[in-house]
Request: fold
Amino acid sequence: EETPSETTEETVEETVSQAALDLALANMNSSRQAAIDSDAEEYAPDYFDSLEEKYADLKARAENGEDVTDACNDLAKRYQALAAYVNALDAKETIDDYELPPLAQAAYDKGCKELDDFETLFEDENSSADDLLAKGTAAYASFKTVLVALYKDIAKDARSDALEAKKDADSVKAAVSEK
Reply:
């Protein structure tokens, strides 16, 4: 026969376990939505579909009362990694539409390598979600660095063009006022 303290202890453990599962499911859903919002279905349909299969399986197992907390946390990181990867692909696409500033070449090359590493890891079933997340995030960070340099370069050119136009306008204005 169980004592009241043992019954209370079991109830507390069950409550904590259920709360952890609920939190993991919510985190997984949130991470999945972030991947969807990043257009993962368009940019990386194979990767997205493979995660969706795992997602459906985990949801079904959770609904059947199985504790899938750790698996949900892992899948959440995989969705986060996918979102970072897609954001990196999008940033690379934007960069490729412009002439790359020479100072940003190293960051661009690093981003490309991180993308390749991500793709290799994704194909490896034994790769960890943490490794995927690190590669996806590193690729995105590298391309963001390039974008900042690119936008600064574009802004500098626009400023130079504006100053030249102002100088031309001032010379016309001066010529008119002399008449």
